[in-house]
Amino acid sequence: MTKMAELKEAVSSLEEKDLREFSLWFAAYEEERWDAQLLKDQDSDPLRKMMEAASQSFAKNQCKPL
């Protein structure tokens, strides 16, 4: 059995209370990973250039309201 199959089986066999607790933990875990990736991406050169270009366009009033 693969790890994914084991995880699916384990999660599907959780009692309601444990499933809620697991869901809260997993949501927080995903947020932490997302934040870490965002910080990493924020420092990457291509993203930095896009952010600077967008900031310059905004400063020159070249942006349109959504």
Please count the beta strands (DSSP E, at least 2 residues each): 0
What's the main sheet like? none
Question: Which shape, going by the Cα principal axes?
Answer: elongated
Question: Approximately how much helix is present in the residues?
Answer: over 70%
Radius of gyration computed on alpha carbons: 21 Å
* Helical stretch tally: 3
Summing up helix and strand content along with how strands pair, one would put the structural category as mainly alpha
Taking pLDDT < 50 over at least 5 consecutive residues as the criterion, the unreliable ranges are none
Task: Write the element-wise H/E pattern from the N-terminal end onward.
Answer: HHH
Q: What is the topological layout?
A:
Blueprint: H1 3-12, H2 16-42, H3 45-59
Task: Provide a brief overview of the structure.
With 66 residues, the chain is an all-alpha fold.
Account of the protein in words:
The protein is mainly α and 66 residues long. The chain is 79% helix and 0% strand. It is built from 3 helices and no strands. The termini are far apart.
